[in-house]
Amino acid sequence: MAIVRFEDYQWKYANTKEFALRGINLEIEEGTFVGVIGPNGSGKTTFAYSINGLIPSQYYGVRKGHVYVAGREVKEYRADELAKQVGVVFSDPEAQFTAMTVEDEVVFGMENIGLTVEEIRERLEWVVPLTEIGHLMDKPPYEVSGGQKQRVALAAVLGMMPRVIVMDEPTAMLDPISRKRVFDVLGRMKHEQSNTVIAIEHNLENLIPLADRMVLLYNGEIILDDEPRPFFEQMDLLLKHDVFPPGAIQYFFELLREGYYNGPLPLTLDDATARLRQLVEKVKEQS
Amino acid sequence: MNKTILGYVPEESPIYNTHPATRILFLLIVSLFPMFISAPEWNLLLVVLILILMRYSRIDFSILKLYVPVAVSMGSIILLSYTVFAGNHPEFHELARVLGIRIYYERILDAITVYFRILPMIFIMIYFLSTSRERDIIVAMRSLRIPYAVTYLVAMALRAVGMVIEDFSIVRQAEQARGFDPVGKSIFYKMRKFVMYIIPLFALALRRADEFANALIARGYSFTGLLSNPKRADYVLTHYQAHYWDYLISFVLIVMLVALVVMRYGLGMLSLEGSLTEQLLRAWLLN
Amino acid sequence: MSDATMSAEQSAEEVWAVEEGEERSVGVIHIVITALLIGIGAVVGAFGSFTLPLGFGVNFFWPAIAVQNVGSIWFGAWGVIAAALFPIISNGVAGTPVYVSLAYIPANAVQAFLPAWAFRQFKGDPRLRKGRDWAIFLISITLGNIFGAFWGPMVVLKSFGLLTTDSLPLFIWGWFAGNEIAGIVFGVILLKALSGVVIRSRAFVKKWFA
Q1: Residue A269: in which H helix or E strand, if any?
Q2: Which of C36, C171, C175 has the highest number of chain B CBs within 10 A, making it the mutation to test binding with B?
Q3: Which of C1, C24, C28, C200 should one mutate to test binding to chain A, selecting the residue with the greatest count of A CBs within 10 A?
Q4: Do B77 and B192 share a structural domain?
Q5: Which domains does chain A have, with CATH numbers?
Q6: Which residues in chain A touch residue B135, judged by CB atoms under 8 angstroms apart?
Q7: Which of A105, A119, A273, C119 could potentially form a cystine with A115 if both were Cys, beta carbons 3.0 to 4.6 Å apart?
Q8: What does CATH list as the number for C26-198?
Q9: CB of B138 within 8 Å of any CB in chain A?
Q10: Distance in angstroms (rounded) separating the CA atoms of residues C66 and C44
């Protein structure tokens, strides 16, 4: 059964002429990791806010169609009920902190959804090592580094154990090392917890190895929706819509097109290196 | 020392063994003491006691430097008020006449009395700010059963103060990078400085309000549930425990307050008339 | 999030009018804006209190008055609540005794309430487009400052026994001038610079609470 379902969904912000999202039909199965990509202004954040209920509860505008989470229309949920189903990590690590210590920050959401002290303690024992924030617990959240902030935000969301986690460009403001550490946590979540994750990201190198499915949003519409390999095989379509896949993928796509290579498109740098090595050895053998 | 939003606190201090609620009670009750004491020597004794308490609490005395201008400014204003603006009082003892301004013995005595009444209040405030971290203030309020709606607003406000201070330094660095330097400049230049800071501060705050509200909702926070959420775990309170000495200190403070009221209004003690200060000043200025 | 073309500019009447079918309710954004106003007010207020103090939280130049005036015009009762509360923090940091700060609450609340009430009552445009808008702003903040200038020194400082009767005029004028000049200079700049953005935001309060 689909955990998230969009049905002929459209949204237009008040005081604007164009719909930010239109004709959205999408079903996301429980336990899948979906990567959502698209250029700035394509409606990715609006898409995320439509799942966690910020739209329409916090924004004025015109809404048509439906968004269902766990079989229930999003706008019928109370805030604390929906928070149990959908957790969001935002792009700006600074703006999402509401408490004065990291521990308070992680605990805040759990208190809001009505957990007891014992339940909170149990969840902390699980989520703190997972996100590697144990040494930060007594610090003010605004005093830790950008990467640590995003791990704290992730811990705060994971602690609420939502069925769906939406990540709205969680590494947009991070350096490469911090970015990798956030994705390491996401990887662990995918393999150990089987959460449904919807990750909106520009950083494809880190996203692709984790994604079960990729969605391209452009100008408020879904242009492409497929598993990663067939998704990136649509290279011309992606480039036409301002998406630039990682160099390794583009390189192998060119080899494929020129007839120098006929295997599956490698999606990661490691995979590409291995396949290139095989290719070179094959050429050596032939010559 | 650790920097907090409101000042500096020692890293380790025996005062941290008291419950934060005891410290807030200390602020509220002891601040009342000077109002029942007119005799300056008793208020001076109170200042000395607070200084001893500060030493015991391992507060770095260098932070007092920050408050010297405040103490001097208040002293000057009081002196100005009671000398230059003393008025014409033939019934008082005139000590001198400077540029037509009459200096009266009674007014000097009043100025000293008022100043020594305000001085302990300032020291109590400094003591409180130097021994209470932001989290302590929130814990104290929650322990005193102040509604969650109020304590959370205070917590957010303190968090906002930290955020604004951070924004302020970013804006200041940005202005300085463009060659804006207010040091040693005129008051009009400094007024311009305020303009250059206050608009970006407001603009940043408005932008952040949106993100901040979204983050709260994503954590399951709902305004309507604030006042009627009796099941909230309040996990932070589990780190703090009231000991027998907290009850003892609170009891002693209340007893002292009652004793002061009785001494002042029941027994006529602690008044200015017949006080040591009055006797010394009379001997010095009138004889 | 995509920024699309804005619709035609609103008139002063439309700024405050609640359209048919328009639903406005108190939301988390209002609590947040109150907290942020307290934050800005506390920082700007403490800055003023340390720079040109007259004593006991009274200053010759207090830019935080603009936070009180403008905050309440834009955000109604939330601005008034913030205006009443932030001086407790800013004065406290500058060494003013807690009970003196608490006793200032009515003065600070009225200083914020009057401009908020005047703009809503007389449909003034927060963007200060016409002479009428300027008049509403200037008169309301002046009346608020007059109240504050009498409440602070006469009720608070006098009752705490901190001032002589003869010195009251100095403090009354000090309070009034310290607030009035800063209120006009910064209030006007903030209203002109940011009202256009604020009235389109979801935090803007048309009535008193939403």
Answers
A1: helix A269-286
A2: C36
A3: C1
A4: no
A5: 2-243 (3.40.50.300), 246-287 (no CATH)
A6: 100-101, 104
A7: A119
A8: 1.10.1760
A9: yes
A10: 10
Residue B210 structural domain: 148-226
- How many Å apart are CA A281 and CA B2, to the nearest integer? 61
* Residues paired with A165 in a beta bridge: A87, A197
| A46–C contact, CB cutoff 8 A | yes
How far is the C-alpha of A220 from the C-alpha of A47, rounded, in Å? Answer: 9
Interface test with B, best of C24, C32, C96 (most B CBs within 10 A): C32
B236 touches chain A (CB under 8 A): yes
C118, exposed or middle or buried, with CB in 10 Å at 0-12, 13-18, 19+? buried
Interface membership of A191 toward C (CB under 8 Å): no
Instruction: Enumerate the residues of chain C whose CB falls inside 8 A of the CB of residue B27.
Output: 98
Let me know if B251 is exposed, middle or buried by CB neighbors in 10 A (0-12, 13-18, 19+).
Answer: exposed
Specify whether B255 is located in the same domain as B212. Answer: no
Task: Name the C residues in 120-149 with CB < 8 Å from any B CB.
Answer: none
Chain B residue numbers touching C95 (CB-CB < 8 A): 67, 70-71, 74, 122, 125-126
Q: Complex ipTM, two decimals?
A: 0.81
Task: Please indicate, yes or no, whether residues B7 and B63 belong to a single structural domain of this protein.
Answer: yes
Cα distance between residue C95 and residue C98, in whole Å: 9
C160 close to C100: Cβ distance less than 8 angstroms:
yes
Q: What is the β-pairing status of strands A164-168 and A196-200?
A: parallel
**CB-based contact B101:B83 (threshold 8 Å):** yes
How many CB contacts within 8 angstroms connect chain B with chain C? 184
Name the residue in chain A with its Cα closest to that of B151. A99
Query: How many independent structural domains does chain B possess?
Result: 2
Please tell me whether the peptide bond between A56 and the residue prior to it is cis, using omega within 30 degrees of 0: yes
Give the pLDDT of chain C (210 residues) as one tens digit per residue.
Answer: 444 334 457 888 888 988 776 667 788 889 999 999 998 898 888 876 666 555 666 666 788 999 999 999 999 999 999 999 999 988 887 777 788 888 899 999 999 999 999 999 999 999 999 999 999 999 999 999 999 999 988 877 777 777 777 778 878 888 898 899 989 989 999 999 999 989 988 889 999 998
A74-82: Cβ within 8 A, 24+ apart: A74/A50, A77/A53, A78/B222, A79/A53, A79/B217, A79/B220, A79/B221, A79/B222, A79/B225, A80/A112, A80/A113, A80/A114, A80/B220, A80/B222, A80/B225, A82/A52, A82/A53, A82/B220
In contact, A83 and B226? CB cutoff 8 Å: no
Closest Cα partner for A132 from A113, A169, A158, A109? A158
Q: Are residues B112 and B62 in the same domain?
A: yes
Establish if B259 belongs to a structural domain: yes
Predicted structure pTM score: 0.81
In sequence order, the 6+-apart residues with CB closer than 8 A to the CB of C89 are: B6, B157, B161, C38, C42, C45, C46
SS3 A181: helix
B8 touches chain C (CB under 8 A): no
d(CA C134, CA C115): 11
Structure tokens at B125: 């405030």
Is B119 part of any domain?
Answer: yes
CA gyration radius for chain C?
17
> Which residues of A are less than 8 Å from B213 in CB distance?
58
Are B57 and B111 within one domain?
A: yes
